[in-house]
Amino acid sequence: MPVRPARCYRRIKGPPYTRLDYIHGAPYVQIPKFDMGNTSPSAREGFTMVARLVVEARGQIRAQALEAARQMAYKYLSVKVGDANYYFRLEVYPHHVLRENKMLAMAGADRLQEGMRLNFGSPAGRAARVERGQVLMTIEFKPEHLPHIKEALRRAASKLPLPTRLIVEPKNGDKKAAS
Question: In this structure, which of 50, 61, 90, 153 has its CB flanked by the most CB atoms within 10 Å?
């Protein structure tokens, strides 16, 4: 069965559904890596700039969208910049289990669905609940790689269902280089 579009899960409705002790058949998180690039602490000291992808609206982001955004940014950076020249981190984790009331899609199915208005649904996927201003991705890098970092995060943002903005600043926290 195909995945429903992002508009079905973008808004936050109800409390989070995260207690895996009580959820039978909850899907696993399909994101293999949250830290990429040069992850050694000694090499990270040489990176003087930080770029952050920040969410502009409150909502939910499915695990599939997070993984697509991560792959877009990571593949672009590894080709254009090289894995030794940046540190990339996905900051959010999809804890919330999404439920789906599976509907029948055949002739006459509308009569069968009348009594299922308040159906609880079965686990169908995972999502990360994010608030406005929350950081989704962080990249530490050297200033000469700034155009490639901006392009990588622009490509990643195109895979996400919520509006985002890019913040670039020096690593020590000064706001002079913000864009």
Answer: 153
